[in-house]
Amino acid sequence: MSEWIHLIEEWLMEYGIYGLLFVSFADSSFFPIPPDVLLIPMGIANPDKALYYALLTTIASVLGAILGWYIGKKLGRPVLRYIISEERIVKVENYFNRYGPIAILIAGFTPIPYKVFTIFAGISRIPLRTLVIWSIIGRGARFFIEAFIIITLGAKAKPFIEDNFGMITLVGGVIITVVYVIYVLIRKKKN
Question: DSSP of 117-143, one letter per residue?
Answer without folding.
Answer: HHHHHHHTT--HHHHHHHHHHHHHHHH
